[in-house]
Design goal:
There is one protein chain. The longest helix has 16 residues. The strands form 3 sheets. This protein has a 4-stranded antiparallel sheet. Strands 3-6-5-4 form a 4-stranded mixed sheet, with no helix packed on it. It contains 9 helices and 12 strands. By secondary structure, the protein is an alpha+beta fold.
Amino acid sequence: MKILRKRPDGFHDIETVFYPVSLCDSLEYIYTDSTDFQDDLTNFSESAVKKLVTDSGKPVYFSISGLPVAGDPSDNLLLKTLNVFEASFGLKSGLRLHLHKAIPMGAGLGGGSADAAFLLKQLWYDHNEPCSFEELVQLATAIGSDCPFFLHNSPMFGSGKGEVLTKMELDLNKLQIVIIKPEISVPTKAAYESVVPDDEPSRLLTLLQAPITSWQTKVTNDFEVSVFKNYPAIAEIKKKLINMGALYTAMSGSGSAVFALFNRNAEIDLSPFNDCFRFHKEL
């Protein structure tokens, strides 16, 4: 991931590659205008369900299970998604939402943005596609810079704030991926404040056309310099994965998760990471 420069709007211009993997949260919802609690989706007690409202006052009943989610539910990107969609096209009613979290927060894996993007796309279907898909992608940028990628959900080269996407050929299907996230979480804002931008073009697209065995010394994540300094435990995870025989390993986005790519036939022992979140899958 290349951090090029800070923009006048306070964001940074970046160059990065987005690649979808099968790690995902689960989201279910039904439409309802009931003003009373109705647990139609789960067996949660009433106290576990937060009653919110959209900007126009439509009821939203929201519950969460799985991995912990920090922050006030009213600040969740799912509610922001409902408000962004409602402002453009209206909502046919309120909703009862349940989110089961499987992607850890503070990892640089885009879990919250993925949830928001998939909800936005489903609302678009539910409301008879009130705009073109290209216009929907533009609408997603109002929710988060990486939300447009999850609408496409295929390998993309990202520039601008990450929202300017170019389709790219990147086939990792003969490999295994491992994702390790320590208990440490890296706040995205803090990561950007510590990184030193480099305005030189990264040649990232060209470098990725070379054999994967050359990536480790050439395809870098600019966040690693400052994040590893502040969180040496994350650097240690990367070192261990390299020593295990990974073809390529790097921090994901602004961290704290580290991913590694291995040959399909590699035998991988993740016991050194028993105190971490672990994900292992063939691509």
